[in-house]
Design a protein that fits this description.
Length: 363
């Protein structure tokens, strides 16, 4: 083999060697970048975790305290106070319901019948009470007075016969037996006269106070039963207690439900707040009334206004939905932030960032 051929072979081997070296260097650089990325990523991740830990407990500067939490919206389970069959439900899930709107109705026919019976009982009790309070009729009193006058007249006649018979008995013109018969008639007339007189006095005095009191209590009871029946009729309508969104319909039209059985669940519009947690060293920096700004991921540049409404007096472990592994043994205090202008922007369970303005309080 001549020298030129050897040179060509060596040149090709050198080129392959250089190409292999370039690949080795490239692989080395890529591996170096990979390990450096892993190193810095782990460093940054631990740093982020530590920052989250401190932020969850409250990273403070001179005027602002940053906390993290979740939105809570009060829910109400609505039900009828009486049992019955559902005749109508006027809203579906997701509908907005205004305060005072009728959400559902029960069949009211049984309650209308109960009211009719109660009204009849009231009329009867009222008439009986009025009769006893007014006393006896004038016709009854006149009749009793006439009877008394008749008894007096009869007694006068028999009394005269008694006097004459008494003299005649002494003269032995009337037998003792006849005199005893006349005496018995006179005594009977006296008794009848006394009875008629007492009967007239009774009619003039009217009914006994105890009877009037019983009639009055019966009327009161009848009126209470009527009011109870009317209240039950009103309770056949399920009224919305506050503005909100209907979340669930538990029962449907035609269902027979018991009193207190859940019919719908309502999410109240105005009762919106955020629960955050603060460590004990930072607890003295805030107080009820401290202004707050509530930030969401959907509008990070437009916070919602709020204020501190409640600070728990008891320490607790950080809830697992906001804690890190390092925070699971940390005791914190729960703080409720009341939102004043949430509108429809804050939803149940939404994660938010809260900035407390330490030197600014709601007056």
């Amino acid at each position: 083999m001549n020298g030129y051929a050897v040179f060509q072979i060596n040149h090709r081997n050198f080129k392959f060697f250089c190409f292999d070296m370039k690949r080795v260097i490239l692989v080395f650089i890529l591996l170096l970048l990979f390990f450096l990325g892993v190193y810095f990523f782990r460093f940054d991740l631990s740093k982020v975790c530590r920052n989250f830990m401190f932020l969850s407990q409250g990273v403070r500067d001179e005027d602002v305290l940053i906390l993290y939490g979740n939105v809570e919206i009060r829910r109400v389970n609505l039900s009828f106070r009486v049992l019955g069959r559902i005749s109508d439900i006027f809203f579906d899930e997701g509908d907005f319901v205004n305060k005072g709107a009728v959400i559902a109705c029960l069949d009211c026919e049984p309650y209308d019948d109960t009211i009719a019976i109660a009204r009849a009982q009231v009329d009867s009790a009222r008439a009986n009470y009025a009769k006893l309070e007014a006393g006896y009729r004038s016709q009854e009193i006149k009749q009793a007075r006439a009877t008394l006058n008749a008894r007096i007249a009869t007694l006068n006649v028999l009394a005269s016969d008694f006097k004459r018979s008494q003299q005649l008995v002494n003269d032995k013109v009337v037998t003792v037996q006849d005199f005893e018969l006349i005496t018995a008639r006179r005594d009977e007339a006296i008794a009848q006269k006394n009875f008629a007189e007492e009967n007239l006095n009774l009619l003039l005095e009217g009914y006994r106070k105890e009877e009037i009191a019983i009639a009055k209590s019966q009327l009161t009871e009848a009126l209470a039963n009527l009011k109870k029946a009317e209240t039950a009729l009103k309770d056949t309508k399920l009224i919305c207690p506050n503005d909100g969104i209907l979340l669930t319909r538990v029962a449907e039209v035609g269902s027979v439900v018991n009193a207190g059985q859940i019919i719908v669940t309502l999410s109240l519009k105005d009762a919106v707040w955020v629960y955050v947690y603060i460590a004990e060293p930072l607890l003295g920096k805030i107080a009820p009334g401290t202004k707050a700004e509530i930030y969401t991921d959907t509008r990070p540049d437009k916070p919602y206004a709020g204020q501190v409404g409640y600070i728990s007096p008891e320490a607790e472990f950080t809830p697992k939905n906001v804690e890190t592994t390092e925070l699971r043994t940390a005791l914190v205090y729960r703080v409720r932030i009341i939102s004043r202008d949430s509108g429809d922007g804050l939803r149940q369970g939404m994660p938010v960032t809260v900035k407390l303005l330490l030197n600014d309080k709601v007056k």
